[in-house]
Amino acid sequence: MTITEQIIELFVRKGDSEYGGEPVTQREHALQAAFLALQADAKPSLIVAALLHDIGHLLHDLPDDAPDAGIDDHHERAGDHFLRPLFSAAVTEPVRMHVEAKRYLCAVDPDYMRALSEPSRVSLALQGGPMTAEEAERFLAQPFAEVAVRLRRWDDEAKVAGLKTPPLERFAEFLTRELDAEGSV
After folding, report:
1. Residue-wise burial string across 142-181, b where 16 or more C-beta atoms lie within 10 A, e elsewhere
2. What confidence tens digit (pLDDT) does each residue in 78-136 have?
3. 33 near 154, Cβ under 8 Å?
4. Residue 119's CB: how many other CB atoms inside 10 A?
5. What is the pTM of this model?
6. Is residue 34 a contact partner of residue 44, using CB atoms and an 8 Å limit?
């Protein structure tokens, strides 16, 4: 089984789990984020990052309501750990940084914070809350900060119940292309 097939299989096996109190499943959320990236004519690496940004949620066996119990699954770290040996930094860094991007946006844009869904507010508190001015400055100095913010905005929009998206298999070509670029297939 190729790595692309293994990733698709992970979504097939675990992607029907609830997406943290939102009206979509993990798979629906991933597909919506990737579809938004595709519609925005993002680079293939960013489309893959959008698809895989929450893969860390599929790598553990915590209950869907773990955040309500005060548990942060550190999915961004788990996802980065899983993806780093397979993909380039153009894929892994936005995945690793998408929680930081939420914290950054909450620090610099009051409208952004007000627009967060309730489940996203719960996870924000577990993830450290809005960044301080110093943290925000350090965040912006990182090479992939701008694309992480772009990914974060798609992450927030990708919670629409019943939205039609291309199937998971549509994104397999992007996965394979980015794996090939890293020499992992």
Report:
1. eebbebbbbbbbbbbebbeeeeebeebeebbebbbebbeb
2. 899 999 999 999 999 999 999 999 999 999 999 999 999 888 888 888 899 999 999 99
3. yes
4. 18
5. 0.91
6. no
